[in-house]
Amino acid sequence: MAIADTLNIDPFDRPVPGQGMTAAPGSRMWEQPSQFSNPKEAIQYVVEKIDSREGAKDEMLNLLASGSPLESIVNTIAFGGFTEGKWNPDVAELIKMPIAGYLIGLAMKEGIDVTMFNVPQSEQDTTKTDDLAKVMASNRPEQFDKLMNDLEMAEEMPDDVESEDLRMEDIEQSIPQDQGGFMPRRGVE
After folding, report:
1. Is 87 helix (H, G, I), strand (E, B) or coil?
2. Residue 51 CA to its chain's centroid (Å)
3. CA 22, CA 11: separation in Å to the nearest integer?
4. Considering only CA atoms, which of 73, 80, 62, 81 is closest in space to residue 117?
5. How far, in Å, are 57, 135, 147, 156, 159 from residue 167 at the CA level?
6. What is the pTM of this model?
7. Residue-wise pLDDT tens digits, 77-117
């Protein structure tokens, strides 16, 4: 900004305090009931909107290929739908992960490396692995020992062994079983 421009600024050229409250109640899109209250329907709407227009899909892929963070794209989609009255803020938060997964899938099909977060990679990893190992060893020694044993076994395993099948079985066994909800029923004794 030039000095002349700074001198010509009118200090009273600002919104009047409370001006945002002067619009008629219910006149803004986000003050109306949302179009989608079910996150699955909102996700389906976004995916269909991207898939139905080839230009939209290409636009998303071009943004990802240019290095735009996926987090920014997903936040923009979620916030845009909220401001248009498509969904409420809760649904906007719930649909972010599935939309991110969908966009990652599109990028993977096209061989595009995705920048996940807004923060550079060097600033994201602030916790050192050694520090985490020390904390885990002191707080959860059994799981730390199991982790160390698994790492040693992985290093000793030959490369020609199909390790993907073994990993899937381990993953399936380690997933907690559904016990019927937040407060599972217990049998009466």
Report:
1. strand
2. 20
3. 22
4. 73
5. 34, 25, 14, 15, 14
6. 0.55
7. 999 999 899 999 999 999 999 999 999 999 999 999 999 98
